Amino acid sequence: MNYPQQGSKVYLFSIVLVAVLGGLLFGYDTAVISGAEKGLQAFFLGAKDFVYTDTIHGITSSSALLGCILGSALSGFFASYFGRKKSLAIAGVFFFLSALGSYYPEFLLFEHGNPTASLLVAFNIYRILGGVGVGLASAICPMYIAEVAPSNMRGTLVSWNQFAIIFGQLVVYFVNFLILGEHTQPIIEKISETIYQVHSSSDQWTIQTGWRYMFGSEAFVAGIFTILVCLVPESPRYLALIGKDEKALDVLSHINGYEKAKEILQQIKETTEVKSEKLFSFGVMVIFVGVMLSVFQQAVGINAVLYYAPRIFESMGMDNPMMNTVYMGIVNITFTLVAVFTVEKLGRKPLLIWGSLGMALGALGVAVSNLVDGVNPIFPVISIMVYSASFMFSWGPICWVLIAEIFPNTIRSAAVAIAVAFQWIFNFIVSSTFVPMYNMSLGDMGDRFGHMFAYALYGVICIIAAWFVYSLVPETKGKTLEDMTNLWRSRSRK
């Protein structure tokens, strides 16, 4: 085989670009609910055969996360037995089918526009199917990028995956805003502690049609991703794990040049003497650190803000909550770029620690604004922006970087699957409990008690997260994936 003597950054960037489209779909799928959830709630409040409560709405809005848990838990199996590339193609198919099914859940089985308990189940099944795609992509996209990227660029390139996630969220905020157009979100009135009704003056187009277009819009991007991912090469580290050294050397040569590729392949082979090892071959701590990184990324509460942004801004008295959501998306993508361009200079740990403290400041600012009467609405809005921006230059991208690179080669697929599964479990816990918690009432404070309690809780968790990173997380800046294998092996022998 005639191997390239010089590596090509164009080749590297092109395959990374395709991989990060999976991140864009991840962001698109998880954030589409932010614009659609109120119309969806109003639609199912019209059901005659069951009562659509706050709790049911919280579960429905978060049902995709159940699929995310399943998809991420299966990602280790898929990545090991089908490879990284085929697994991403399978994820793309799930995205596509979910988008069409969520747009038209009545397909073949139910009367169009008639909300029933059975239709709600069908809708949630389609959302869960998309969640499986998200779960696969969330674990395998950063894994794939980390396995093709040179060590001096790995943090930056994996961070681009988070940029794509946030960009996908920003895109869907704009898409939702454009779909809504001159229409208005439905007016939902609380008539008892758990029962709501739709005001008669509400825009019926939004209730019957608008949310469908929002979900269906994802199908176009999903189709493009599925086609493009079939054109990229398999991960060289996966190829080496299954004994296809010539193909691995070819991919590495296109990226790094032939001489450097031979050196890298030799390092890979030295740390992959067997195809896989037992999960705890490198000790319990490496798994614990990976899992807790995932837990803290969600327990800080960010997705409660991202999924329910329009509702939150509306509760703060903002006149145009959808536009404020777009502004937040612009802030998010701007601060994600801070991580992209500083992760290789500042390192992973400093960004995580400062981000945790910034999030704590923002979350506690929102809590205080609900505790004190007469606070100008701009204060909690700015606090939300600080909270969100701090996440975007820290836990958003850096958690994915660490999860992709912290585990040894021979247990990476299984360990990443476990870590990401925990991430989606806590994502579901946070997202499904946010609405009931946010709406809790107490005495004269009314609903403001729930607003205060939710953000105070997230602020405290942010402080604990900063301590965890400072105490237990190793710095991985400048280290090869094989260096991490040797680091954990030496620690497990102590």
Summed up, what is this model?
This protein has helices at residues 9-31, 33-45, 54-81, 83-103, 117-148, 154-180, 204-216, 218-229, 236-241, 245-256, 258-271, 284-299, 302-307, 309-315, 321-346, 348-371, 378-392, 395-405, 412-438, 448-472, 481-492; strands at residues 188-190, 196-198. By secondary structure, it is mainly alpha-helical. A hairpin with a 5-residue loop joins β1 and β2.
Topology:
Blueprint: H1 9-31, H2 33-45, H3 54-81, H4 83-103, H5 117-148, H6 154-180, E1 188-190, E2 196-198, H7 204-216, H8 218-229, H9 236-241, H10 245-256, H11 258-271, H12 284-299, H13 302-307, H14 309-315, H15 321-346, H16 348-371, H17 378-392, H18 395-405, H19 412-438, H20 448-472, H21 481-492
Antiparallel strand pairs: 1-2
Which structural traits does this protein have?
single chain; 494 residues; mainly alpha; two-stranded antiparallel ribbon
Write structural notes for this entry.
With 494 residues, this protein is an all-alpha fold. Helix content is 75%, strand content 1%. It is built from 21 helices and 2 strands. It has helices at 9-31, 33-45, 54-81, 83-103, 117-148, 154-180, 204-216, 218-229, 236-241, 245-256, 258-271, 284-299, 302-307, 309-315, 321-346, 348-371, 378-392, 395-405, 412-438, 448-472, 481-492; strands spanning 188-190, 196-198. A two-stranded antiparallel sheet has the order 1-2. Helix 5 (117-148) runs antiparallel to helix 6 (154-180) and helix 5 (117-148) packs across helix 19. It is globular. The mean pLDDT is 84.
